Amino acid sequence: MVAVRLWGSLAEFADGHREVDIAATNLRELLDGLAKAHPALKPQLERGVSVSIDGRIYNDTWATPISETSEVVLLSRLVGG
Amino acid sequence: MAKDEYAAREFKVVGTRPLRPDGIDKVTGRARYGADISAPGMLVGMALRSPHAHARIKSIDTSAAEVLPGVKAVVTRADFTHQPEDNATADILDNCMAGEKALYDGHAVAAVAATSRNAALAALAAIKVDYDVLPHVMDVDDAMKPGAPVLLRGRKQESVPAEMSDNVLTRTQYGHGTPEEGFKKADLVIERNFKTAATHQGYIEPHACLATLGADGQGDMWVCTQGHYMVRNTCAAVLGLDAGNLRVTASEIGGGFGGKTTVFLEPTALVLSRKSGRPVKMTMTRDEVFRASGPTASTSIDIKIGMTRDGKITAATGDYRYQNGAYEAMNGTLGAMTGFAPYDLEHVRTTGWDVVTNRPKAAAYRAPGAPMAAFAVESVIDELARELGLDPIDVRLKNAAREGTRSAYGPTYPAIGLEATLEAAKAHPHWAAPLGENQGRGVACGFWFNFGGDTCVSLMINPDGTVSLSEGNPDIGGSRASMSMMAAEELGIPMEQVRTIVADTASLGQNEVTDGSRVTFAVGLATIKAARHAIEIMKERAAMTWGIEADAVEWVDGAAQPAGPNAGKFPPMTIAEIAAIASNTGGPIAGHHEVTAEGAGVSFGTHIADTEVDPETGAVKVLRYTVIQDAGKAVHPAYVEGQLQGGAVQGIGWALNEEYVYGADGTLQNPGFLDYRIPVASDLPMIDPVILEIPNPGHPYGVRGVGETGIVPPLAALANAVSRAAGVRLTSLPMSPPKVLAALKEA
Question: What is the complex's ipTM, to 2 decimals?
Answer without folding.
Answer: 0.95
